[in-house]
Task: inverse folding
């Protein structure tokens, strides 16, 4: 029983970090990923399970932000699936129409699952990319913060 | 009905050439790039994405360049493009409460947790032409401040906690309508109405919203909360079986609150209208929220007395791609149709004139 729980635990943990790196990879761009892959000096060989493909996702919203779901509109998405020599299958799903971005995201997703390379790549690629994305977000937030306003209500009328 | 015509290829080709030359304008002036439009005409890009119902800023910018700045034409181009793409899936509902807020204001409460944040806005400008923009100029440096990490609850939740708000609707997750797949039928439910309004023409919604404020319909709304910022979009691909984020999109959101005096079956309460769009389209989402509220008249047991409350009227005429198509098809050759009208018109007049002549003769 204990063992089952720990397996589920580690699976959840695995999925959690995979979700994290896939989100980070989606928010970067082809140029950055190409550079990152070159820096790794791995030159991984891989086969396409699904070559890069441009399509759309229907974006859902909710009435009042919390109520009934409705279709807001579509967004372009590019996806790609690869299998690296070690046998790991990687998927890339990225907003926009950059096929190279989707392909590299899939390659990284596969490499990150490999016990041999994964931890090192997480540390040297995903972590810095994620920090950079956070920093960009923070920079935006500091500009936004300067526009916070305090209105004073004036008394109107005769007395 | 119009009839097929043949010929004219040369003239049509020449006309398109001429259009391309005029689009380029004076060649002594550098050609505008798509990235310049993307960066510096962003609100036009956002409007085209919103009404084109496709989030892709670079494509919207290209459409604006191609259409010479005719935004309805650009919307049409984007809509045509989207029909060429397969749909990979449906996103999980975006969580606008978790938005990275770049603007957030409320006209109902002065002091809201998280504060009023103006963000980049035209509000409070004097609408005087800025001649410094006519020359190349650097904008003033932007100020920064330490961001407030405090959560930013939805303003509507404040009213909701007091029980003053209409009950939250049930989540009809299983069956969300899609007007891109099935034609709209009436009465239309709110999911269909919101999708239609979200891609509807801003000018049309603005006019309808305005009409509801001016007395065509009984609406006295307040802007409960307006937000603009970035949200993550996530989906669950089948091959993965878990939810992943595919990127962030900018959206605008507006919640209008309207007092409702109650009916035979309902206590007085506040009702709400909702507006949501891709990009920074504040006027659009405000208008959309007004119209969304007006369209709830049927469900609230009210009488349909104004155009903005009539769902068939609103939903059938909100789409500018459909509307421009039907209006502009009048330019196409209707020669045979018109010939028929012409013959009928002549013969009717002839008959009446003959009759009048005969009547006169009889009277004399």
Result:
């Amino acid at each position: 029983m204990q063992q089952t729980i720990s397996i589920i635990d580690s699976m959840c943990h695995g999925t959690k970090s995979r979700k994290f790196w896939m989100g980070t990879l989606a928010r970067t761009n082809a140029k950055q990923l190409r550079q990152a892959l070159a820096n790794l000096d791995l030159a991984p060989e891989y086969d396409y399970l699904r070559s890069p493909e441009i399509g759309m996702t229907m974006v859902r919203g909710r009435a009042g932000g919390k109520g009934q779901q409705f279709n807001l509109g579509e967004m372009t998405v590019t996806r790609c699936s690869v299998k690296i020599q070690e046998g790991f299958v990687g998927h890339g799903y990225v907003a926009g129409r950059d096929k190279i971005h989707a392909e590299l995201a899939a390659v990284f997703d596969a490499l990150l699952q490999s016990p041999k390379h994964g931890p090192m790549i997480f540390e040297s690629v995903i972590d810095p990319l994620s920090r950079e994305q956070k920093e960009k977000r923070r920079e935006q937030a500091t500009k936004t913060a300067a526009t916070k306003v305090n209105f004073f209500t004036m008394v109107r009328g005769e007395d | 009905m119009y009839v097929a015509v043949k010929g004219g290829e040369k003239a049509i080709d020449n006309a398109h050439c001429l259009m391309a030359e005029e689009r380029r304008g004076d060649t002594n002036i550098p050609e505008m790039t798509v990235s310049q439009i993307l960066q510096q005409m962003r609100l036009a890009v956002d409007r085209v994405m919103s009404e084109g119902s496709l989030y892709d800023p670079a494509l919207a910018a290209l459409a604006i360049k191609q259409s010479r700045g005719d935004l309805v034409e650009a919307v049409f181009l984007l809509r045509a493009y989207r029909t060429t793409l397969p749909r990979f899936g449906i996103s999980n509902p975006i969580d606008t409460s978790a938005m990275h807020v770049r603007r957030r204001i409320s006209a109902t409460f002065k002091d809201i947790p998280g504060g009023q944040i103006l963000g980049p806005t035209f509000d409070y400008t004097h609408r005087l032409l800025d001649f410094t923009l006519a020359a190349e100029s650097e904008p003033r440096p932007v100020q920064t401040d330490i961001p407030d990490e405090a959560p930013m609850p939805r303003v509507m939740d404040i009213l909701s906690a007091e029980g003053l708000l209409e009950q939250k609707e049930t989540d009809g997750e299983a069956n969300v309508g899609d007007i891109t797949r099935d034609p709209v039928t009436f009465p239309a439910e709110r999911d269909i109405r919101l999708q239609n309004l979200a891609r509807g023409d801003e000018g049309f919604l603005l006019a309808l919203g305005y009409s509801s404020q001016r007395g065509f319909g009984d609406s006295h709304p307040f802007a409960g909360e307006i937000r603009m910022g970035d949200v993550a979009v996530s989906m669950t691909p089948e091959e993965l079986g878990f939810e992943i984020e595919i990127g962030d999109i900018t959206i605008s959101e507006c919640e209008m609150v309207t007092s409702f005096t109650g009916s035979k079956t309902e206590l007085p309460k506040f009702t709400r209208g909702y507006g949501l769009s891709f990009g920074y389209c504040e006027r659009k989402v405000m208008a959309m929220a007004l119209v969304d509220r007006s369209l709830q008249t049927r469900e609230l047991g009210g009488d349909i007395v104004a155009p903005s409350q009539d769902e068939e009227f609103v939903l059938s005429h909100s789409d500018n791609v459909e509307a421009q198509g039907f209006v502009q098809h009048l330019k196409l050759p209707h020669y045979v149709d018109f010939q028929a009208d012409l013959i009928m018109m002549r013969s009717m007049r002839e008959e009446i004139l003959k009759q009048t002549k005969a009547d006169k003769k009889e009277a004399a």
